[in-house]
Design goal:
Layout: E1 2-8, H1 17-34, H2 38-49, H3 56-77, E2 88-94, E3 100-102
Antiparallel strand pairs: 1-2, 2-3
Length: 104
């Protein structure tokens, strides 16, 4: 199953196609630099935000998630005047049946 990284949020419509590609590439580079699966980071991040207890390894995955999210946000919004922007990374798995499923 392949992983799909994209941007989401209220302001995603303001991101140009070129900036979207640069943002996704920036997030992918962070995940690759740390040698982690983006979906594992997403799952750990969701667990953290549900106020569930997380392990040390999950906390590390959450920190990597935040780094990737910031890298993508920064690439997508560089030069924008406002910093009150609703924009974030979203990771999905492409299921074998062609239907995309958002991670839990």
């Amino acid at each position: 199953m392949r992983t799909i990284i994209t941007l989401a949020g209220r302001d995603v419509r303001l991101v140009s196609e070129n900036d979207m590609a640069l943002a996704i590439q920036a997030a992918e580079e962070v995940f690759a630099q740390h040698g982690v699966d983006p979906m594992a980071c997403e799952v750990a991040n969701q667990k953290q935000y549900s106020d569930a207890e997380i392990t040390r390894d999950e906390a590390l995955l959450c920190a990597i998630w935040e780094e990737a999210n910031y890298a993508a946000w920064h690439k997508a919004t560089i030069g924008w005047m406002s910093r009150d922007i609703d924009l974030y990374v979203m990771v999905q798995s492409a299921a074998a049946d062609g239907m995309d499923t958002i991670s839990a």
